[in-house]
Specification:
Elements: H1 27-38, H2 43-57, H3 70-97, H4 124-152, H5 165-190, H6 193-204, H7 219-226, H8 239-249, H9 251-256, E1 262-265, E2 268-272, H10 276-284, H11 296-299, H12 308-321
Antiparallel strand pairs: 1-2
Helix pairs in contact: 2-8, 3-4, 4-7, 4-8, 5-8
């Protein structure tokens, strides 16, 4: 497997262009992309299965959500807290405590930091847990209960699988694409020097990322990041769409920030997790603001392909931004 002085592991470099918006369109690539993401046990399918199960078994009904009350709000918070602990904590237990696959497919060779005053509690994992489970779960719950209340009272358009099966399925596919679009632009905003120094730098202390770092943010960043959920205030959806979106933004961030490219089972890649694309962002900051599926970094000159030339260009751009 490829490695270098800087990286324990990296994919073949320079990174190619896996964007679904490549031009001219490649129908074969789009079919393979859809099959990989939606017809296998991918991160998205796992989160969707969890969303369906949680809606029917764990969350309160919309009838209950017609009026704000402590009981059902607490129920939503407890469910979100439990799923966040299970996802980030489970991944951390497997990869970093039990060393389930050692450092195979791990990008950064280092372990999570301890004994460093950069972190609250002098511990990277404890610091990340504090922000993820505190402000993170609280604000995720806030956006969810407000949206559920809007749905329950008819203030936002709703559909069911029976009333509109095509849009029901299509919207599930579109939510991660919308999330990537929203994330790129709010991420660029958070890298404006004023907001970066006061807000986003907290997340970027995680140069060597781990599962608990994905949702570890300043409260202001949590709010900006989670405005993606306001989509359900104006677009016809169902609580399953909302919960899938909630899981994609919260627990899903733990999956994409494992620091590993894939989960190995019997030496075979079984589940795609983190991407080197975003790992480069955590290492070099002013690049790869979005994700691989969207073309924005390539279109706006902020793409880092993993080469030394791209590193030099990124460092020059960062220097210019902070002059």
């Amino acid at each position: 497997m490829p490695s270098s002085k800087e990286w324990n592991y990296h994919p073949e470099l320079p990174l190619d262009d896996p964007s679904i918006f490549k031009w001219p369109p490649d129908p074969g690539f789009l079919v393979r992309w859809f099959a990989r993401n939606w017809l296998t046990l991918s991160e998205r399918v796992i989160l969707l299965i969890l969303a369906v199960a949680a809606w029917y078994l764990l969350y309160p009904s919309l009838e209950t959500a017609q009026s704000f009350a402590f009981g059902w709000v607490l129920q939503v918070w407890l469910v979100n807290m439990g799923i966040m602990i299970a996802s980030a904590g489970g991944l951390h237990l497997y990869f970093y405590m039990r060393k389930g696959q050692g450092k195979t497919l791990k990008f950064d060779p280092r372990d999570q930091a301890r004994g460093n005053r950069l972190w609250n509690f002098k511990n990277q994992v404890h610091d990340n847990m504090f922000w993820s489970l505190g402000s993170g779960v609280a604000q995720l719950t806030l956006f969810q209960i407000v949206t559920m209340w809007l749905m329950a009272n008819g203030y936002t358009p709703m559909i069911t699988l029976g009333s509109n099966p095509v849009w029901f399925v299509a919207f599930l596919v579109l939510i991660p694409i919308w999330s990537a679009f929203h994330f790129y632009w709010v991420h660029r905003l958070l890298h404006v020097p004023f907001l970066y120094k006061r807000v986003h730098s907290l997340h970027h202390r995680n140069v060597n990322i781990g599962p608990w770092s994905g949702f570890s943010m300043h409260p202001v960043e949590h709010f900006i990041y989670l405005t993606t959920l306001c989509l359900h205030w104006v677009v016809a959806s169902h609580p399953i769409h909302l919960i899938f979106h909630v899981f994609y933004q919260g627990p899903g961030a733990a999956m994409t920030h494992t620091g590993y490219e894939d989960l190995l089972i019997r030496d075979k890649r079984r589940l795609a997790l983190g991407t080197f694309y975003h790992q480069l962002h955590h290492r070099f900051y002013e690049c790869n603001y979005g994700n691989q599926e969207m073309p924005w970094d390539r279109w706006f000159g902020t793409f880092h392909d993993g080469s030394s030339e791209a590193t030099q260009a990124t460092r020059a751009r960062k220097k210019k931004m902070y002059e």
